Amino acid sequence: MLPKNPKQIEEILKPLQLSSETYGAIKQKMDDDMTNGLSTDQHTLADAKMYITYVRAVPNGTEVGNFLALDLGGTNFRVLLIKLDGGEVTMQSTIYMIPEAIMTGTGAQLFDHIANCIDSFIEDKKLDRTVELPLGFTFSFPCKQEGLAKARLVTWTKGFNCSGVVNEDIVRLLHESVAKKQIKVRCIAVINDTVGALMSCAHEDNRCQIGLILGTGTNACYMEKIERVQQWDGDDESPQEVIINTEWGAFGNSKALNFITTEYDTNVDKISINPGKQIYEKMISGMYMGEIARQVVIKLVDAGCLFDGVASEKLRTPMAFLTKYISEIESDEEFDNFVKTRQVLDELDVERYRVADCLVMQEVCSVVSTRAAYLAAAGISVLLDRVEKPEVTIGVDGSLYRYHPKFHDLITEKLSQLSPHKKFKLMLSHDGSGKGAALVAAVAWRIYCSN
């Protein structure tokens, strides 16, 4: 059965379907913005801030020893012991709760709680208390990094609001708390989740030079030559490269993406918690992709192209169309009688729909997710060109990449067009925030010992 008003449907979807030339223009604009982000005099003008992580190398397989990792980014907190013996990795971990009273108490209470958890972990795993353990810390809150083991909290997010921590060095606060308990650990690296994804994949494949998050939000990091990083304030020793945290989600904040912004994007931005910010991220990430699709669906309903022009109250509710619905609808098959699409429409209280409506829903979801994947590919293409290696592996983590049935293939397809002379592969990262943190510590320890 054919949809009603196919020409009108085509017109409504058209603004989201960009040409190859347009994606090439986006790539060029991103590259220019990243160059500004790395410079001293243009840095304040850049949307992508290109923060220095002070991580200088990926694992080379010679790392050995025991390393602790801490992973703090929500109400659960993990302590991990990671044993490295060349290419072999064994991991043990324990999850500890962070009570709400501590999440909104003082910084001293939070870090004392973390120290108590480390102490319990060392006791439970019967670790030698006379040997100092190097530690990597994944701290998933906005920070200004001032060294590999020095990071100042910019602001709390995710329900945390501990007093006395903003603008303070979190490593110093951690060390003060572990000293009270007389625990022999030393934090030698603080990282974010993109660096974790890169390092975790690099341990299995040392051609990994790019780390990418495609989940609720999106961000990327990559290995850059220090000579191109005008803001570099570290030492001049080898290796002469450093991982840059692009913070690319903010690209477009200065209106560089206005030429592709649709009415759907504008509406999503208006109802978001941070209007005018994270523009590129809002076009790609899992937090907003479902809402972009809902905006399109409502326009189609109001034009009489869907559901006989009738939308349920739930469908008219902002953020009610979840991004997971897109994955479910796109993994549906016509010969299965659109079972998953029908389940989604039932959940949204849509009462009247036909096979033709299911086809239109599939088309809407496909157009929205394809644009998101192609936009991500434009960004990755910039980083591939910057890395300047013959073969590059891209470590990817995040629920959008993991669970969307076509995201991997769509990115690969567009990346092959935008970087035709590059050999690359996308690799799913496993436990970047745990294993990745320990690997950063291990590599830092190896470089420290060799220097």
**pLDDT < 50 stretches:** none
CATH architecture of the largest domain: 3-Layer(aba) Sandwich
CATH topology of the largest domain: Hexokinase, domain 1
Oligomerization:
single chain
Main β-sheet, in a few words? 6 strands, mixed
Strand content: 15-25%
- Number of beta strands: 13
Distance between the termini: 70 Å
Percent helix range: 40-55%
* Structural class by helix and strand composition: alpha/beta
Describe this structure in words.
The protein is α/β, with parallel strands linked by helices. The chain is built from 15 helices and 13 strands. It has 2 domains: 278 residues, Hexokinase, domain 1 (3-Layer(aba) Sandwich); 138 residues, ATPase, nucleotide binding domain (Nucleotidyltransferase, domain 5, 2-Layer Sandwich). Helix 7 crosses helix 9 and helix 10 packs across helix 12. The chain is globular. The protein starts with 5 loop residues before the first helix and ends with a helix. The model has no long low-confidence stretch (mean pLDDT 93). This is Phosphotransferase.
